[in-house]
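Sample intake sheet
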Amino acid sequence: MFVNLVAVDDEPLPGDPVEVRGYSVTYAENVENGMVSVIDVDAFGETTSVTTSGVVVRNPDRGVWTTAVSKGRLAFSGRQRVVVGGVGWREVVTVTRRGWTTVGGDGPAYRVTLAHGNETTLAFRSNASTAEPQIGGATSRSLPRTPASSCSSRTGTGAFARRSPARTRRSPPAA
């Protein structure tokens, strides 16, 4: 005979979850998995506590707490459908991740939305990412105009390049 020694945590889910007939669907990063062991083992520096990131589905009445879509899978696909339901019914929550990766930035910037029925909810917003502005592979910097030059730009090597006004030379007439 086997005994189930896990239970669904009743802590509230982060963010603003979408509620569908007892199911809560949300997106979270680095949250403790809500399917907790009844006996917490903490030995040799190890613990039964596990963190997860992605689309989380919970229904305490049905004993459900799961990461339905991982953070990496959603980042790769951009959109996933999460199906929840019971006997005789099914409903879909569409999860969308939209964002961008900045050049020279500190990671991607993105937001995750949940859509169910006619409502779309912002579930998660990542930290901002600052870009290192570049034009044609060189960092661009504007300088005030001087009589000797029309503009300056910083090259990728760290040196400044100065562009002089164009001069035309006429060739002597052919004899």
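Comment: The chain is about 5% helix and 50% strand. Residues 140-171 have pLDDT under 50 and may be disordered.
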